[in-house]
Amino acid sequence: MRRYSGKVEGGEEKTNFNFSGSGFLLTFHAGAADVFLKRGIIKESSTFSGASGGAIISAALATGISPDTIISTTLEISAICRQKGTVTKVGKLLEEHLRKMFKPGDENLCSGRVALAVSRVKPRPFLSPVMVRSFHDRDHLISTIMASCFIPGYLSPHATFRMDKDRYIDGALVNILPPIRSSVNVLCFKKRWVSFMVPNTCDMTSLISPDIIPNFPYKLPQMVKFALFPATDEEVFRMFQLGQQAAELWLDRRSESKK
């Protein structure tokens, strides 16, 4: 597994990152994160928030897990799902790979720096995500990520995910982006496709999404399919490259606006 040092050179400006629900499309997020790292935008003071696949990339960035590791893990899970099936089976695979990715002590790197969105359905339902910001051990960190990703009947045959005696489902089910202010928002879908799921707290002037890419090559039905079912290896790398392109374009435009 490749980890970056976490010590990124740059100015003092604090930049926070908010990643949308994505499923297998978290490779778009990994591409954007790759650019953030290479251009020194992610700093030791940066914080991260995310829902579903965005929760995975948020915890990965806080603990120094590289975008390359996210891609290789996605390819491994995709290969098994193509062979053995995805629905009700992918959850076990995901948990196994999260346990390989995250090590004891990573919960300390995430606590206070990462906010992960989950939707609590028991004992009392919440229409907006519950943001988990502290993790008492590695198992709790992994369980929170699993809860954030838990689409009922998709990750496993069960209707909910149990954590700390409560029941949860996917943190992106109502709000595809966590309701976090003052963040760079990374959305793997075009905004108009999911506008009803984007909370008002998100600053759309700081949005990195397929909208920014001229002649984006995929339509909504294809993107939904890519999110729920493993794409080919070529398409996985293509989505990573599109995430890179979107981040580069956004950063270039931000630089131009500051001149």
Automatic annotation (TrEMBL):
Cleaved signal peptide residues: none
Pfam family, one: Patatin
Key words of the record: Hydrolase, Lipid degradation, Lipid metabolism
Gene Ontology cellular-component terms listed: cytoplasm; lipid droplet; membrane
Active site: 52 (nucleophile), 170 (proton acceptor)
Organism domain of life: Eukaryota
An annotated Gene Ontology molecular function: triacylglycerol lipase activity
Motif GXSXG, chain ranges: 50-54
Ranges spanned by the short sequence motif DGA/G, renumbered to the chain: 170-172
Record protein name field: PNPLA domain-containing protein
Lineage: Eukaryota, Cryptophyceae, Pyrenomonadales, Geminigeraceae, Guillardia
